[in-house]
Amino acid sequence: MGGKLADVGFLGFDVFGTVVDWRAGVARAAAPFLEHHGLRLDPFDFANAWRALYQPAMEKVRSGQRPWVRLDVLQRENLEQLLAAHGVAAGDIPEAELADLTRAWERLDPWPDAVEGLARLKRRFAIAPISNGHIAGMLQLARFGGLPWDAILGAEVSRTYKPQPATYLQPLDAAGFAPAQAAMVAAHNADLRAARALGMRTVFVRRPHEYGPDQDTDLRAEEDWDVVAESLTEVADILGCL
After folding, report:
1. Which of 55, 62, 168, 218 has the most crowded Cβ, counting Cβ within 10 A?
2. d(CA 53, CA 47)
3. All structural domains of the chain
4. Which residues contact 142 (CB under 8 A, 6 or more apart)?
């Protein structure tokens, strides 16, 4: 049972895009905010634009340009930057509204297959996020969506962001697993590439609508990942988790 993952005891999961649908959740939260403040922006375009600031903000931490800060800090700064680009000063918006909209990233619906798939995989493997999300945010996201993690690991454990090696290795060490005993599960080829370079096994889950109908990245497995599937329930099928 388990084929190439027969010796694996731990599955680490990318969360944003792989387990939860960030675009729809952020757009849902943004729609009333944009309408209330007279911003004629499509909520889904707003969500994509907010997400586009994600990697540049983390790169400043990865490169040492700024000290470690949690993802919620970066997301709030990115929100203020996005609003400024549309002529809205953050100081003109009530603090409670900005804080609530930032927490939209903690109220994201799982993909339809995610909860069932995780529950089935948990019967055989220890499961936890290896995400750029901070622990408090991942906790709220799990409670909101019913994600049955065994632990919450990731960037806040290592105090850096993927694809830095420590973001994978330190959570594994904290959970008591060597890289060869673990697999990374992600919808992003670059995430799996970084994990494989450290000796982890790899599971690609295709999410062709993560960025919407015009998505042009991560539409296929770009390498011979150990498992390639269309859903987390299919991953469970492949690995014999009934």
Report:
1. 168
2. 10
3. 3-21+109-238 (3.40.50.1000), 23-106 (1.10.150.240)
4. 148, 149, 152
User: Could you give the CA distance from residue 110 to residue 200 in angstroms, rounded to a whole number?
Assistant: 25
Distance CA 74, CA 76 (A): 5
Distance, in Å, from the CA atom of 176 to the CA atom of 190, rounded to the nearest integer, reads 25
Q: Are 170 and 157 in contact (CB under 8 A)?
A: yes
Residue 237 neighbours by CB under 8 Å, 6+ apart: 229
What 3-state class would DSSP assign to 209? Answer: coil
pLDDT at 3: 61
Helix axes 189-197, 165-175, angle to 10 degrees: 70
Sign for the pseudo-dihedral over CA of 83, 89, 95, 96: negative
Q: Which helix (H) or strand (E) holds 97?
A: helix 95-102
H or E element, residue 223: none
**Please, which residues have CB within 8 angstroms of residue 213's CB and are 6 or more apart in sequence?**
none
| Chain segment 130-151, per-residue pLDDT in tens | 999 999 999 999 999 999 999 9
